[in-house]
C-alpha cells in the first residue's frame, strides 16, 4: 500500500485525559476502546500516511488551573511518545490549559520548542468567550510571533445546551460554535492582527459557507473596514478548513464556493468516524484528480513543511 494521505483531524485519548473526565462511563465505546494500534489500522486501510493527533471535546478545562496544566502536559508528552514510537505516522496539535493564559503560554512554549508539536489545538469557545475575545490576546500574540498553526475544534457553549430535545450538541451546536468563532475572529479584527497564525477550522467551517451571504452583507457596513482592511473574503480565504464529517457534495460544494481548494485539508474525526468512508465520500464530491491530491496531501505538506520537519510523510507499506 502506498499511503500518502494526511489526516489533520484525528483524536487520541491518553489515560491521563480519560482519568480527568467527570463521567468517563458515558463515553462512547469507540473512545473507551481506542488504542494507537486501532488508529494505525484505520489509517492503513485508507492509505493515510500520517495523522495529526488532537484532544477533543470536552477538553481538559474543568475550572481547576493546576489540574488543567497537569493534564495538558501529560497529553502532550503522551503524543510525543507516540510520535517517537511510530516514526512518520503521527504528529500532534498540543493541548493547552485555556482559559488559563499563563499556563497556556508556558505549555505552548514547551510543546512547540521541546516536544516539537506541529501546532496547537484550541476549542472554539471557552466559558462563553469566542476566540476573537480580547482575553486571548497574549496567547495569540505569541502564536502570531511564532507563525504557528492553530487547529480549532468545536465544543458546546454553555449558552446552548439542550435547546432541542433529543438532539445532541454534535448535530447542530458544534457547527454553530465554529461559525461563531470564525465571526468573532474576523469581525473583532483579530484575524487581521494575527495574520501570521494559520488557523484550521473543523467540519468545513461549520455553517459559515451556508451563511456567507449574511457575512458579506454585515461586512459591507463601513464600520468594519478598520478591522478587516483587506476585506471579509480575504480573511476567510486565509483560513484552512477540514473535511471531517462533511465529505459530501452539498458541504464541499458550499465550501468550494467560498475558499480555494488550496485551503481545504483532509480530516476524518477518527474514531468517531472512519478514514475509509471519508476517502470514499470525498472522491464522490466531483473534485478533479489534482484537487483531490491537494486536499488529501499536498495542502497539508505545504502548510506544515517549514514549520515542523516531522510532517514529512513516510510512506507506509
How is this structure best described in words?
The strands form two sheets. This protein has an eight-stranded parallel beta sheet. Strand 3 (90-94), helix 5 and strand 4 (119-123) form a beta-alpha-beta unit. The protein is 42% helix and 13% strand. It has one domain: Alpha-Beta Barrel (TIM Barrel), CATH 3.20.20.140. It has helices at residues 15-19, 29-32, 36-46, 65-85, 101-114, 137-146, 173-187, 190-193, 212-219, 232-236, 249-258, 275-283, 289-304, and strands at residues 5-11, 48-54, 90-94, 119-123, 125-126, 129-130, 149-153, 198-201, 240-242, 264-265. It contains 13 helices and ten strands.
Task: Throw out a few tags for this protein.
317 residues; alpha/beta; TIM Barrel; 8-stranded parallel beta sheet; two-stranded antiparallel ribbon; 13 helices; 10 strands; globular
Which structural class do the helices and strands define?
alpha/beta
Shape: globular
**Number of separate helices:** 13
The proportion of residues in beta strands is 5-15%
CATH topology: TIM Barrel
> Spans of 5+ residues with little confidence (pLDDT < 50)?
none
Brief summary:
By secondary structure, this protein is of the alpha/beta class. The protein has helices spanning 15-19, 29-32, 36-46, 65-85, 101-114, 137-146, 173-187, 190-193, 212-219, 232-236, 249-258, 275-283, 289-304; strands at 5-11, 48-54, 90-94, 119-123, 125-126, 129-130, 149-153, 198-201, 240-242, 264-265.
List the helices and strands and how they pair.
Layout: E1 5-11, H1 15-19, H2 29-32, H3 36-46, E2 48-54, H4 65-85, E3 90-94, H5 101-114, E4 119-123, E5 125-126, E6 129-130, H6 137-146, E7 149-153, H7 173-187, H8 190-193, E8 198-201, H9 212-219, H10 232-236, E9 240-242, H11 249-258, E10 264-265, H12 275-283, H13 289-304
Parallel strand pairs: 1-2, 2-3, 3-4, 4-7, 7-8, 8-9, 9-10
Antiparallel strand pairs: 5-6
Helix pairs in contact: 4-5
Amino acid at each position: 500500500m502506498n499511503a500518502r494521505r494526511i489526516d489533520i483531524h484525528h483524536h487520541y485519548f491518553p489515560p491521563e485525559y480519560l482519568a480527568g473526565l467527570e463521567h468517563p462511563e458515558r463515553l462512547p465505546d469507540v473512545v473507551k476502546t481506542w488504542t494507537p494500534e486501532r488508529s494505525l489500522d484505520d489509517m492503513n486501510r485508507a492509505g493515510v500516511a500520517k495523522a495529526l493527533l488532537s484532544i477533543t471535546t470536552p477538553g481538559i478545562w474543568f475550572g481547576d488551573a493546576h489540574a488543567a496544566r497537569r493534564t495538558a502536559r501529560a497529553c502532550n508528552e503522551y503524543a510525543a511518545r507516540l510520535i517517537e514510537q511510530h516514526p512518520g505516522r503521527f504528529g500532534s496539535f498540543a493541548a493547552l490549559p485555556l482559559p488559563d493564559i499563563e499556563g497556556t503560554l508556558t505549555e505552548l512554549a514547551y510543546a512547540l520548542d521541546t516536544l516539537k508539536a506541529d501546532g496547537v489545538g484550541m476549542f472554539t469557545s471557552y466559558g462563553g468567550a469566542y476566540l476573537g475575545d480580547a482575553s486571548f490576546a497574549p496567547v495569540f500574540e505569541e502564536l502570531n510571533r511564532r507563525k504557528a498553526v492553530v487547529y480549532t475544534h468545536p465544543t458546546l457553549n454553555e449558552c446552548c445546551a439542550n435547546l432541542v430535545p433529543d438532539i445532541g450538541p454534535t448535530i447542530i451546536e458544534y457547527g454553530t460554535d465554529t461559525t461563531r468563532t470564525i465571526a468573532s475572529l474576523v469581525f473583532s479584527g483579530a484575524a487581521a492582527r494575527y495574520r501570521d497564525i494559520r488557523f484550521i477550522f473543523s467540519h468545513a467551517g461549520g455553517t459559515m459557507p451556508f451563511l456567507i451571504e449574511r457575512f458579506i452583507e454585515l461586512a459591507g457596513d463601513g464600520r468594519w473596514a478598520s478591522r478587516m482592511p483587506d476585506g471579509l473574503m480575504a480573511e476567510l480565504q486565509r483560513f484552512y478548513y477540514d473535511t471531517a464529517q462533511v465529505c459530501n457534495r452539498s458541504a464541499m460544494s458550499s465550501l468550494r464556493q467560498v475558499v480555494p481548494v488550496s485551503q481545504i485539508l483532509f480530516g476524518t474525526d477518527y474514531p468517531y468516524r472512519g478514514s475509509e468512508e471519508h476517502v470514499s465520500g470525498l472522491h464522490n464530491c466531483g473534485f478533479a484528480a489534482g484537487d483531490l491530491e491537494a486536499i488529501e496531501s499536498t495542502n497539508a505538506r505545504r502548510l506544515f513543511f517549514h514549520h515542523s520537519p516531522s510532517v514529512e510523510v513516510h510512506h507506509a507499506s
